[in-house]
Structure formats: structure tokens, C-alpha cells
Amino acid sequence: MINGERLIERPLRWGMVGGGRTGQVGYKHRTGALRDGTYSLVAGAFDLDAERGRDFGVRLGVEAGRCYATYQDLIAGETARDDAVEVVSVATPNFTHYEITRACLEAGLHVICEKPLFFTVAESEQIKELAEHKNLIVGVTYGFTGHPLVHQMATMVKKGMLGDIRIVDMAYTHGFNSGDDVGAPEAVKWRTNPKTAGSTFVLGDIGTHLYYLSEIVLADLKIEKLLCDRKAFIPSRAPLEDHATVLMHYNNGARGRLWVSSVDAGNMGSQRYRFVGSKASIAWSDSHPDQLVYQVQGEPERIMHHGMPYLEDESLAVDRMGALHTEGLGDSWSNIYLWIAQAIDAKRRGDEAFLKTHHYPDINAGLEGVRFLENCVRSADAGAVWVDFE
Amino acid sequence: MINGERLIERPLRWGMVGGGRTGQVGYKHRTGALRDGTYSLVAGAFDLDAERGRDFGVRLGVEAGRCYATYQDLIAGETARDDAVEVVSVATPNFTHYEITRACLEAGLHVICEKPLFFTVAESEQIKELAEHKNLIVGVTYGFTGHPLVHQMATMVKKGMLGDIRIVDMAYTHGFNSGDDVGAPEAVKWRTNPKTAGSTFVLGDIGTHLYYLSEIVLADLKIEKLLCDRKAFIPSRAPLEDHATVLMHYNNGARGRLWVSSVDAGNMGSQRYRFVGSKASIAWSDSHPDQLVYQVQGEPERIMHHGMPYLEDESLAVDRMGALHTEGLGDSWSNIYLWIAQAIDAKRRGDEAFLKTHHYPDINAGLEGVRFLENCVRSADAGAVWVDFE
Amino acid sequence: MINGERLIERPLRWGMVGGGRTGQVGYKHRTGALRDGTYSLVAGAFDLDAERGRDFGVRLGVEAGRCYATYQDLIAGETARDDAVEVVSVATPNFTHYEITRACLEAGLHVICEKPLFFTVAESEQIKELAEHKNLIVGVTYGFTGHPLVHQMATMVKKGMLGDIRIVDMAYTHGFNSGDDVGAPEAVKWRTNPKTAGSTFVLGDIGTHLYYLSEIVLADLKIEKLLCDRKAFIPSRAPLEDHATVLMHYNNGARGRLWVSSVDAGNMGSQRYRFVGSKASIAWSDSHPDQLVYQVQGEPERIMHHGMPYLEDESLAVDRMGALHTEGLGDSWSNIYLWIAQAIDAKRRGDEAFLKTHHYPDINAGLEGVRFLENCVRSADAGAVWVDFE
Amino acid sequence: MINGERLIERPLRWGMVGGGRTGQVGYKHRTGALRDGTYSLVAGAFDLDAERGRDFGVRLGVEAGRCYATYQDLIAGETARDDAVEVVSVATPNFTHYEITRACLEAGLHVICEKPLFFTVAESEQIKELAEHKNLIVGVTYGFTGHPLVHQMATMVKKGMLGDIRIVDMAYTHGFNSGDDVGAPEAVKWRTNPKTAGSTFVLGDIGTHLYYLSEIVLADLKIEKLLCDRKAFIPSRAPLEDHATVLMHYNNGARGRLWVSSVDAGNMGSQRYRFVGSKASIAWSDSHPDQLVYQVQGEPERIMHHGMPYLEDESLAVDRMGALHTEGLGDSWSNIYLWIAQAIDAKRRGDEAFLKTHHYPDINAGLEGVRFLENCVRSADAGAVWVDFE
């Protein structure tokens, strides 16, 4: 179990771009980073409104002089200091991820970026190359994949407890965009505009969570071809989609389906996963994350609870609160930020052996998410036809 | 509420073909038919093993002389009597439905048949014509569509409580065929053989339930095109499928998906339905049939319970046990058999006005199920491509 | 599994007192009795309004001449016939149970009576003696104790799968009487009047269900002392209660608690049971009766489903619909009526050996329910103090 | 919503007594305190093993010189510094709470203490007096009462949405002590020894959580009398209990029951609450804390979710993650630590007006918990009889 003892040498000096007072996303980053003393928030360009951003930063405990108006200022100001930030989190709209990440890397800073990472695979590969060249870490915040039961699932699949994987069923649907967008807040508007959101709305916004979690659990499976059918029920969102269904064929013969929607009126179920094997299935949802359904065909259904001794070591190792004590999204973010910190620490120490086996949502996790989106869009725009996964 | 008072003039003289001792399907028919005194079981050809069938029939209270070896004998024997059966239920493997139904109709008997009704639309249309010509009823036993909350859903949609329908999500999956079929019982074997099962396995066996229920709830929607991806995870079942996914586009722009599987290891969820509109959604499953989830976007989720005064009249009218008193599959079958009896009674009385508005799973319900299957197979066999719904 | 094959020689000639059109309780009796051809409804005194009762009976298929105005008329009329009723069900308000049961027994008729059986243990013992003297059966309709999973629980406890029983937790609460009784229907009014209901309201009306089910599951346990705290939240119901809590000490050291209420606003959970042993617990509710929670300390929780091969033989033997096919209250009533029919049949055949091991809700089940009520009332009326169970 | 912006002037200098590496309780304190930069961990006496405690503290980021061997050393060492700790958390076995709290207060330090606060009401009143005299805050860590939906419940009751409160039903049961204590870890052993645990085991250990939460929700109700029946199913735990049932009569006529157990084999339900009024009920459990069941008699059940706009302002104000984003125990602890910090900050600023209306688990919350235990023990030890609540 994790108990707050530092797992790295010293706290990392950390800055944020975005994540200011007008939204709640930045707080998830801070919840993840600050709990265990692994990061120390020392700088930020929190807000497009520089004055509001400075006031906000100061109330977070950042020195006024290190609350910058823009990310460019942050990089310039910090790199001039002896105690400069080492790692920067990017919690801004999608269309700025690429340029901010590139600028930070070029300035020698590690980066932690929101998903979907960038607009294209090409951009992602450039950044991957740049990070490698600069010997820097890029982490991606797939929020709920730090939960202990996600890693329970991965280990169960790996150990063959399900048999051969046959069916993958994933959904992340809600109804918060069931109405039209007249008078919608900025956070909705930029997500439905291709210039600021990229080539997708819900596929990128929530579908990438599903895809990355499935990559963790199904480490050996690859998609061979897919078909994506997407639609904007609110016409003003077109060509982006507020609803999409994807069918997948995997390289082992498994079949998958994925559903994302922001017009699923009233649905509060959040992310739901079901992995079916020849012997057994597992099902998990982040709406009740502390329980995992494990169904062996012909036996009573089993409900497993986080933190219980019967779980796999891989799950117990990343538990924080213990059995009966509900873990939430914040606990998952704490793990993700911790794992990224460990990667950065290893990079600093030149410990490439550690990095070889250390699991965290890295640049490849971000890149593969973008690749998934590109394939979906290619299929959808060709009329919801099957395309080879490239 | 229904309380057992006879809603038709007198009990119908009823016979069964199939439904003998070696399976449990026949008991569902008898549960449906006998509870309220609407039918009187007077004859049967219950079993391929004539001796066993006679013994069984006698223990059901049928005279030995009216327990026949074959359906042909039954028709011959009964039509020679003054008190002949009036209606015959067909609870035999799929490949015999057509010939038995035709023979009964030709002999002037009403028919109640298991689903999937026949192998082809062409057969279904012939039977429809024959039944019309003979002035006889053909009912189809879509087992769970008699439940009061199914009719609650239909009324809510009709009244516009969901707004415009946007998304239809349906699944009926289980894992009872996760293992291979070596040594499987006859009831499994004939279902996976095209000669005895027709062109589908799970699509016909359980998918037709989903499709018919959606027709009830979404009375105004029609499928314009669909795509079906099917697979036999147990190769010996090919070309039939033990797993299939169908995507649908409806005439009002709605999107649908349907999943059927008999290799969904450990899944005990049975049928699950979700209908999403622009304002609200409803969700129902026959595994907990007495509750209906009603979710208005932006309001607390609501759980409705069968038999409660806040439900629509259409639902309360067909309730049998009352609130807090769980209704099960048997109660639903009782309603279906009752509604078919009312249709037969009206036919006998020549009351075509009644028949015009009376709802029950009729020959069209059967025919449309077969049409759905034909479209699925056409799509699947062309490589899981989109096909216009014909 | 049960499939409708007759388990007794021939259908029993059956009559009803009460259970007419104005309530739904009679339909539960008919659902239980008529489904399998075990009983044949031939006579009735269905209603205090003789005309309405006759019309109702005829619509149930009873000859007009055997629809009687009173139970006295029924006894007189029937006993004069060669084909007289053999068994009579009593579905009338509590205060008439004793006199009708006594009269039927004296006339040589078996009786099936609603719970709570009578007002006092003394009455119950008189009837028990009379039934023995007359060699007749008295059955009591504890509605949900016919469910297959109730008998799964009993067998699990008997086999020691829970270890030593330590804790018994039972509740049956609803909120249908949360408001006052002004303008309440007759069915509510007689239940809150000591003259017609006896010495309790909710304890007798719903608490006896809990108590009898616990007797089935905990065959070896006896209450040594109890404490009952009862209250009428609607004052007009006093001295009867609309809410009561009972604490129990069992002879093996186990502790129990029982809660009944009709003012538990909005509660739709119906009956809930939890039996805790030194090794494991089981939990069941009739609101989702087809699943049983089985919790071994230190292992994942298990959900068992009715009809599945992993269940005990005792449970599978009384299953009717099969796994995945929801069984409801009606299926449970069918089992209870069947078991009583088997007892009557054995009595008719003089098969006392069968009766020695045959389980059904008999006169003792009714008598013990009344004894439980008497002890509760004695405790409550003395100020909610501990009393030895007598 | 809370987003990490500092709600007090500057971080409080914070120390811990107990909460070391061998248990997980200290991590809950640190999770609560460190997330938002409200506290700064600067000192500790973390462990009875001084060496281990120092190593642990250093890995938490505390200077080695401020990792003390004992709480006495901590007080001595810190009070000699200009930058001394201002507030100390006590996360040690029950029997040391009193002496450590007293010593800290006498040294001028605010205290945050685990529950149950002390052994007796008398001790609690002494400490209350001392804290008032010293003008210091004593906070008590009732872990889950910081959750937004707890405050939703309190507001709903206060606004009369339930009508008059009639029934209170509370339980906190688990089975982790179902086996005997041979070879049990120290954390179990001291809890079952009266010298180290006080006069109760489960009543104090988990029952005080139930009681305090009920005080928040039912601000206007007082217990008038209660009856407590307790038992040690594992005899070595006697005279302390591993199972107890309490019945309560409230001053407004309401009836309550409370169940605590550590031998409820397999139960993973954690804390469960149900508050029933004349019009409606609410139910909540910390095992699925983000949803609240709201049942108006005669209407569909409602499920409310945390963070949704339809909730009361009092709930939304203390939400941290937003709707769909699961909040867990850690989020609740963060709120409790924040509220205590605000109290300490107000005390420092001399802002007594703020303190008059500011809600947090204060010395009275601790004292009332002890009072509840004293009444329970008095009843239980007199033979589980009714006692007036004193």
C-alpha cells in the first residue's frame, strides 16, 4: 500500500499551464500531484486572464512573481532561475497541447499533458522524437487508470484467469450535452469546434479513456480493423460527433465494441468495461470503482473489493485507503502523478533499467490514443466502413 | 389489474405440439395458458418418443386417447371430433415451425408458435396469407413482452416523455455456450445446425426478443439500414454465429445497436434495453423486471416499480400481482397467452373491430422478426457491411 | 424442476371463502392453485356482497349454483353433494379465520388459511387438535417461502456452510401507511382495528412472514427471549402498531433483530433477510428474489442465481422457470399450494410416512407465528421489556 | 466547489503523534491535511519505535531533528522553536488520547484527535474546559462526515423535505473479526482490551461514526432513552463487545436503531444510514457514497448524485471532484481537515463570529460520542435495559 512515504529523492518543482479558477480540471491535477509531497507547485500560467491567473496562483501558494501571463513567459522566467520548474502540466484546450508541450520540451522541461494528447499521429511522433532527443518524460493524464482494480484486471487477464479474450465491451456515455449549445460555457464550445478540439469531440474527450484502459488490461491484443459510426445529434456540432459507436476486430480474433456519447440523457454510469474470455469475464465501472465483477461461467458471480487480501499483488501495491474505505478519482490521479514522478526521477538519475519496466501513461499512451482517433475518423468519414488499423 | 376473471366467453380447447418432458420450454407455455382458465389443455403430440409423450400428457391431465404420436395424428384425430382443439401451440425446433403451422391452419386451427417463427420472410408471408384466408389467428410467444413495465415504456415513448428518440441500445447475452458443443444436449445441437435452426443461432434464438420488444416501445420507428457483424467463437457452430453485433440507423435519424451472445461467460444479466431521447432515457432488464429506470437529463434518476399508481394506465391494466409483489417470466407469458386468447375469441365472434386495436404478438410480429434476421444475415454474409433494410 | 406434471393422483376439488373482486389477495391463491392442474376451483363464497360474489365466481368458471352467499352456505351446499369441495381456502380478514377454519374442519374439509392464522395460541391449539382428530390438513399461505432460494438458504445452513449462526437480521418495511387513515379503504381499516385484526397490525400482517421464513432457514434455533418495541405513528391505529422492532436471543447464543413497518416512507425493498454465521453470511430479499448473496469472510462476495446447477438439489427440485428466467411471487405461491396439495393427497391416501418428512407450511407454522406475536405483544405492552419466549 | 485555493491565511504548521508506518490510519490524516496546502507537516512522533519513526518522518519530508521519540519530546522540542508546530494530530490507541491531548493543549497547541475521543464524559469535559481556557481548538476526525451528500441530507432534513422524522436506522458492520484473535496484530489486540480501548470495542470503534453523522443530519433531535444489547461472540473479547444493537427513543417521538458488528462475516457494506420522515426517506452508505436515495412515498424512487446542480448549495459548496467523478474517503477527510483549519485560523485571528456558525467536528462532537458510549455501556451492563439518556 501507498502511505505517503516519498518514493522519489525529493519533491519535483512543478508548474501548471492552464487549470485556473474557471474550471475544475486543474484541481484534479493538483489533487494528484500535491497529496504525497512528490511535487511542489512553484510556478504557473494558470489563466488566459493574467490578473485572475496571478491572484489564483497566489492563493494556491505560488509566489506572485512566478505566476506568469503566458506559457512563453513561464518558460522564459523559469529557465532563467536556478530553482526553475522541472516539470510542467498542460491543462489547456486541445489545440494548444502540441505547441506548449513542444516549447516545454525544447526548454528542457518534462511535461504532463491532458488527453487527447495532440491532433495527429504525426505531431505525436514528432514530440516523441523530441522527448527522446531531450531525454525528457511526457506523461498523459488518463484519469481513472490509476485505480487499483484496473491493475487487478490487467493481472487477471495476464495470468489467464479469463482464458482467451473473446469480447471487449466498453462505454463512456453521459447526457450533459443533450441540449443544444446555445449559451453553452466556453468549455463546451471549444470542444465542438474542429479548430480547437481537433477532428473529434466525444471520441477524443472520453473515448481515449476507454481505449487506454483497454490497452492496459489487454496488453497482448491489437486492433486489426475497426468501423466507426459517428453522428452529431445537435447539428451545430457537425462535423464533430456527440455520439459514436466503434466496432473492433482484434488480432486474436476477439470482437470489440465501444460507445461514447454526450447525449445519453440522464446516464450517470460513466465508464463501463467488460472483458470476456473463454472461461470468465470481468466488469468494472468508475462509477462504483471499488468493486470488480468476476464471473466464471457456471459458478456464482463474484464481487471483489479493492484492498482485500485476495487481490493480486499488483493491485494491493497501489491501494491507498484500504478495504472498506472508498477510493475515488482523486486517488487514481495520485497514482498517475506518482508514477510519472517516478519516471522523471529515474530519468534524472539516469536509471534507464527502471524505466524499461516502469508502467505509467507515457508518450506512447498518448500517441496510441491519437492513432485510435485517426482510425475512427477515417472510418467514419468514409461512411462508417471497415478500415485496417494503421 | 388482472385477477383471473375470464375475459373471453369460455376456455379455449388447446393442444400442444412439442413441449414435452425433456425440456422446460413447454412448461412456460402451460404456465402462460392454464393459470386463468382461459385455455383448457385437451390434446397434445408432446414428444418425438410417442410413448414418453403419452405418459407425459396423461400426467398433465390430457386423456390418453388425445395424446398423439405426431402432429399429423393430432390434426387427424382432433378434426374428427366434435370437441376438437381450437388452437395449437408449436414448441418444437425451428425447422418444423413452418410445416406444423401450415398444417394446423389448413385444418382450421389457430396457432401459437415459438420464435423465431420461420426460416424466411417468404414462408412467413405465405402463412400470413393462409391465416387471413382461413380467418385464423397466429400468435408468437415473445416471452417477456407481456410484462407491465414493457407497456409502461411504450406509453412513455408514445406520450413524448423522452422527447425525440435518439439512441437504442439492446443486449441479450449469456455464457451458457462458452464451452464447445462436444457432448452437448440435443437442445443445443439443433440450434447450431443450419438445417434445423435456419440461418442464425443467437440472432434468432435471443435476438428476436430484443427486436420485437423494440418494435413495441418504438412503434413509430423503422430501421432504414443496418450492419451485422457475427462470429462463431466455437468453430463447429459456423456458419451460424454464437456472437453478433448489429448497428442500426432508424428513419428518424436515431442510432441503434444490438448485441447477442451465448459466449458472454458468466453474464446473468439477460435482456437489457436502453431507449434514449432528447429529454430523457428509460432502461429495463428482464433480470430485475419489476423496476424501470427513468432518467430525465439534469434531474435525479428515478426508479419506477411495477404496480404503483404513478404508472401509466396501460401498464397498470396488465399488472397481476400488485406493487411489492415480484412478477416474473410466468406472469408475462400469462399476459401473452391471454392476449392471444382474446384475439382468437374475437375472431370466433367475428369482432374485427376489436382486432383492429387489440395488441398481441401476431403473425406480423413473427414476420418482422424473420425479416430482421434476413437483413442481419445479408449484411453479415457480405462482410459485415451496411445494407438497406428490406 | 417442476414442469406441471401432476404430482398427485387427481386434481383436488377446491373452494374459496373471500378473495373476491375488490382485492387482489384471492388472485394470489388462484395463481398458486390453478397453474398446474392440481386444484380445480368448483365452489366459493367470494364476497360479503353475495350478488357480486356470484357474478365474480361465474367469471372464474365456477357454476352459479356453487357460488354461495356465505361460508356457512358453502359448507351446507357442498357437503350435500357427491362431488363436494375437499379443501377450502380462507382469504378473509383475520378475525374470521378461526370460525371459518373450525367450521370447515368440522364439516370434514381441509383448510388453507391466510396468515396470521388466528388471534391466539389457544385458538391455534384447538384447531390443531381438531384437525388431528378429523385427520385433516391445515395449510398456511406464507407467500414467498416457496421460492427455490429460500430452500437453498435452508440447505446451506443445515450443511454448515455458514458455520455457527450468530446473527439474524430481518426486515419487512414499506411506507404505504405513512399517511393517516382518513378515507382509507376497508382493507386498511380492518387491519388497524383490534376487533378485526387481533392484537397486532404490522407484526401480524408482515412480521409473520419474516418469522416463518427464519424458522425454515434456522431449523435448529429457538428464541429464548425477546424484546418488542412497537408504536403507532398514526395515533388512530393505537393500541395496534404501524412500526415495531424486535430483539431476539436464540438458544445457541445467536442474536436477532426484526423490523416491521408500514410507515417506512418510500421503501420498496420488501422482505430482507441476512443470516450470519461464524464463517459466512447469506442475504436474500423478495424484491430481487432470484439472487442470493453468499459472503464467505475473506473471499470475494458471491451472487448465486436461481436455477443454476451449482445450487443445492433442494433448491433445484422446486425451481420452475430455469436460470435466467425470473421467478416471482406467483411461482412461490404455486409451490406452496403444490406442497399443501401433496399433504392433502397423502392424507387421503393414508400415507403418514410421506407426511412425516414432507415440508409445507402447516398448522404448526401458523401456530408458531401466532406464538411469536403473543410474545411480542406481551413484551411491548409491558414497556418493551425482555420476556422469556413461551 | 473546492478547488485548492487557500481558504485560510497561510498553511498551519502541523505535527503528528502516531500514524506511523505500521498502520494506514496516519495516511488518512495526511491525505486530509496535505492536499490543499492548508497544513504543512513539520514535526512528528510517529512511532513507539523512535528509530523507525524518524526514518518514516524523514521520508514524509520532515526534518530529522523534528522527528521525535515521544509526544513529550515533541512538545518540548517544538515549543522551544520560533517556528513551532501550531496543531498536532493524535492518531494513537484510544487510551493515550486524553493524556496527549491535555499535554498539547497545555503547551498551547491545537489538537486534532481520533475517535472515540476519550474514555469518559468527565475527561471530555475537562478537556473542553481546558481548550476554552487556552483558547484552542480540538477537532475530532469522524472520517466520512465531510462527504458532500452528508450535508445534502442535513439540509434536506432541515428544510422539511422528509416531513417529521419518525425512524432512524443505522448500521456499520463488517466481518474482519469473525475469527478469534489468536495471532491478531497489535491494532486488533489493543482494541479488545479495556485498558487500551476503554469500555467498548465496536461501539466506540465504529459506532461513534454512526452517532456523529446522525447528529449532523438530525440536528434538532435528541435521544431520550436507549437500550443497548451487546455481546462478544469471541469470548476473549469480553467484557468488550464485537456486536451490539442499540434502540433509541428520540425527544420528538422518533424511533431509532443502530447496529455495529465486527463479526458480520463477509459484509462489505460499511456504514448504512436511513432516515425516514412522514413524507419521505433518504438513505446513504459510504460504500457507494456518491449517490443518495431519496424516496417520497407514492413517487418513483430518486437517486441523487454528488456534484449535480439539483443538489442543495450546502452540498455543492463542499464538492471537490464534480459530478460523475467519484469522491472517496480521502475527499471527505480533506473537508474535515479543511474545516478544522478554518476553525484554527479563525481562533488565531480572534474571529469568534466566524466560529459561532462554522461547522466542524469539534470538542462537543467528541464529547457527545463519548456520552453516547457511556449510555450504551450503562444499559448493556444492566442487562440490556432501557436507560434515560444522560
Descriptive overview:
Four copies of one chain form a homotetramer. By secondary structure, the first copy, chain A, is α/β, with parallel strands linked by helices. Chain A folds into two domains: 158 residues, Rossmann fold (3-Layer(aba) Sandwich), CATH 3.40.50.720; 197 residues, Dihydrodipicolinate Reductase, domain 2 (2-Layer Sandwich). In chain A, 35% of the residues lie in helices and 22% in strands. Chain A is built from 13 helices and 14 strands. A nine-stranded mixed β-sheet of chain A has the order 13-12-11-10-6-9-8-7-14. In chain A, strands 2-1-3-4-5 form a five-stranded parallel β-sheet, with helices on both faces. In chain A, strand 11 and strand 12 form a beta hairpin. Chain A is globular. Chains A and D meet through helix 1 and helix 11 of A and helix 1 and helix 11 of D.
Task: Provide a short characterization of the protein structure.
4 copies of one chain form a homotetramer. With 390 residues, chain A is of the alpha/beta class.
Q: In DSSP terms, counting alpha (H) and pi (I) runs of 4 or more, how many helices of chain A?
A: 13
Q: Poorly predicted ranges of chain A (pLDDT <50, ≥5 residues)?
A: none
Q: What is the CATH first-level class name of the largest domain in chain A?
A: Alpha Beta
Note the beta-strand portion of chain A.
15-25%
Distance between the termini of chain A: 39 Å
CATH architecture of the largest domain in chain A: 2-Layer Sandwich
How many domains of chain A, as an integer? 2
Greatest interface? A-D, 45 and 45 residues
Radius of gyration of chain A: 21 Å
**Main sheet characteristics of chain A:** 9 strands, mixed
Encode the helix/strand succession of chain A as letters: EHEHHEHEHEHEHHHEEEEEEEHHHHE
The shape of chain A, in one word, is globular
